[in-house]
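> call design_seq(struct)
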């Protein structure tokens, strides 16, 4: 189906407020919404809404959201032809190495080395190609934790493209539950799981936090990895603590350096110990373990 892209530029704070309101205003449609960091120093962020269906109605609702937030921002509209989004999103995508992992698109298969754990990713509209500091930080830390602890199972909460779930399945050959709040991401995740030949190990589902019956069947988990954002990570700290096995590990990312202490404190309050933190491009990846 053809799509219309409605987009506008805003400060980070405005973009986050718009994003939160759009999620509510367009809840039923489930259309993808994205915030792109265009220029962090000048605080320019681009909010895009990909509309399948009545674009006039969507634009009117978006204007209404802006009015309600008292933001006077121009909405730009772009009709998107039927194109191969996956191919487009991979144009110019450079492969990335993080620890032993080599994350690449289909056009860079020939750059794989024998010693690599290669992960082929078609990112499409889902987040996670290994380029972001948070994904790369998670890949590095999960390799260290898996090698040290040999976990028996894992949860990748906020799986996006499934890059971390695939990394876990390839490195440790353990059952991995991969969840995401966004059904589009779950479709992309599931396709990537198939593409990388790890469908026997990875189950993908749409879920918000731990709100899904699957958690009654799965878990507790020896390893939970969640690259979402500081806010939701703090919110779900009690459930995280309830779903981690004694002796297990929690890897948290999507956290800005200045948010580090408040995330760690909220997990310490749930009976976890802070083990270590990895810094990458202004983002942190945090390793915690339940108290013995
Ligand atoms: C930053 S991306 C991370 C993708 C991938 N795991 C990676 O490391 O590259 C965060 C993902 O978490 C999902 N997400 C955000 N909040 C969530 C929640 N409460 N429960 C489940 N998924 C969530 C988003 O839809 C998004 O796909």
């Amino acid at each position: 189906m053809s799509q219309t892209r409605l987009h506008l530029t805003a400060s980070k704070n405005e973009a986050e407020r718009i994003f939160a309101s759009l999620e509510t205003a367009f809840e039923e449609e489930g259309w993808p919404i994205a915030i792109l960091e265009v220029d962090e120093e000048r605080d320019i962020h681009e909010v895009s809404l990909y509309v399948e269906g009545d674009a006039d109605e969507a634009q009117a609702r978006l204007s209404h959201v802006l009015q309600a937030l008292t933001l006077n921002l121009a909405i730009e509209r772009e009709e998107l032809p039927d194109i191969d989004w996956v191919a487009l999103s991979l144009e110019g995508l450079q492969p990335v190495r993080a620890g032993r992992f080599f994350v690449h698109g289909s056009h860079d298969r020939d750059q794989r080395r024998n010693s690599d754990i290669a992960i082929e990713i078609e990112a499409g509209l889902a987040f996670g190609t290994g380029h972001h500091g948070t994904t790369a930080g998670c890949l590095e830390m999960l390799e260290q934790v898996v090698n040290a602890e040999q976990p028996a199972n894992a949860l990748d909460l906020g799986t996006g493209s499934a890059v971390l779930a695939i990394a876990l399945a390839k490195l440790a050959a353990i059952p991995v539950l991969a969840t995401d709040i966004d059904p589009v991401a779950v479709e992309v995740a599931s396709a990537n799981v198939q593409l990388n030949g790890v469908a026997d190990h990875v189950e993908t589902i749409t879920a918000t936090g731990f709100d899904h019956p699957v958690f009654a069947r799965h878990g507790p988990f020896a390893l939970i990895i969640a690259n979402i954002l500081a806010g939701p990570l703090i919110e779900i700290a009690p459930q995280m603590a309830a779903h981690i096995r004694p002796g297990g590990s929690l890897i948290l990312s999507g956290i800005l350096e200045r948010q580090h202490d408040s995330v760690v404190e909220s997990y310490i309050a749930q009976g976890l110990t802070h083990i270590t933190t990895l810094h990458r491009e202004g983002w942190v990846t945090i390793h915690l373990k339940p108290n013995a």
